[in-house]
Amino acid sequence: MLIQNLAKKKNWLFDLDNTLYSPNLGIFSQIDQRMKKFISKKLELSETKSFKLQKNFYKKYGTTLYGLMKHYEVDPQEFCNYVHDINLKNLKHSKILRSKLQALPGRKIVYTNGDYKYAKKILRRLGIEDQFLDIFDITKSNYIPKPMKSSLNKLIKQYELNPLETAYFDDLEKNLMSASLKGFTTIHISEKSSGESQSHIDFRFKTVINALDMISKVL
Ligand SMILES: [Mg+2]
Q1: What is the gyration radius of the CA atoms in the chain, in angstroms?
Q2: Domain assignment of residue 79, given as a range
Q3: Any residues with CB less than 8 A from the CB of 186 and at least 6 apart, and which?
């Protein structure tokens, strides 16, 4: 696909964690640790066993939370409050990200497996919270996470999105799969390039700023 095709898009979906900020800032790794602690306390398991369970659920369902709700009836709000209680000092206002987002015409929506309160906090730290029409968080999809199709379907319905008019940025290739099948243009954000090209990835960039920079040149 040619980058020029992006100039016609009317909607832009952005994953939050490790997409709108770099994984090197150590934000999501803190959440990972908090999840392990939460499971260990709640289910009275060793940290090693907790971590295994956490990762199994994550792989199987898309979020650890979904597995905990399904198999252990964990209260999702309690989980979210606990795991999102982290240090955000590494996140700073980004004037460049802000101006690149501002230059994008059309609707901008955050699409995250996190919860609204947390997403809002992250966007505020980055100084970009006013750039988005809305945050489609895990509560809006009834805790059904990406990459499950019903999460995406709910989002499409909520904003009456035409996939052909929408580009979607995410750092996880598996989240882009169902979106690609629906006709979204997919943009993978990753500092490590995986080398081989995959048919469900239309574009790859190291950072979201790189991506927006390229797009701004064709607008
Ligand atoms: Mg992410």
Answers
A1: 17
A2: 27-83
A3: 167, 168, 170, 176, 179, 180, 200, 201, 202, 203
Q: CA 172 to CA 43: how far, in whole Å?
A: 29
What CATH number is attached to the domain comprising 71?
1.10.150.450
Instruction: Tokens 């490790």: give the residue.
Output: 18
**Local structure of residue 18 (DSSP, 8 states):** T
| Domain count of the fold of the chain | 2
- Whether residue 142 sits in one domain with residue 96: yes
pLDDT at 198: 82
Shared domain for 39 and 141, answered yes or no, is no
Residues 57, 42 share a domain: yes
Residue pair 200/176 in contact by the 8 Å Cβ criterion: yes
Ligand 1 geometric centre to CA of 204 (Å): 14
d(CA 32, CA 51): 9
Q: How far apart are CA 200 and CA 197, in angstroms?
A: 9
Contact in structure between 104 and 215 (CB atoms under 8 Å): yes
Angle at 198 between CA 157 and CA 61, to 5 degrees: 50
Say how many Å lie between the CA of residue 170 and the centre of ligand 1.
6
Do 144 and 57 lie in one domain? The reply is no
- Tell me how far the alpha carbon of residue 14 lies from the centroid of ligand 1, in angstroms: 9
If asked whether residues 101 and 73 sit together in one domain, one would say: no
Q: Per residue in 95-119, pLDDT tens?
A: 999 999 999 999 999 999 999 999 9
Q: Which residue has the higher pLDDT, 196 or 164?
A: 164
